[in-house]
Amino acid sequence: MELRELSAENKAALLGPGCEEVLKDRQTAKAILARLHSLNPQLAGEFRLKETALSGFPFRLLCSPDARQDVPSYLVLSYCWRGGDWQAVDNTPAAPWPLCRPMVEEVLKRRTSHDEGVWIDVPCINQEDEDEKRLAIGSMDVVYRAARQLLVVLEDVQLDAVEQAATMKYSQILHRLAVPGLGAGIFDLLANEFDPSEAEYTAIIALFRRILSARWFSRTWCTHEIRIRPNERHSQRTLFLMFGSTGEVLCLAGRFLFIFAYLLRSEDKNEERRLKIFPHRTKLPRISMPDSADMSTESLFLRYYQLTSGGRVLQRF
Question: Residue 244, SS3?
Answer without folding.
Answer: coil
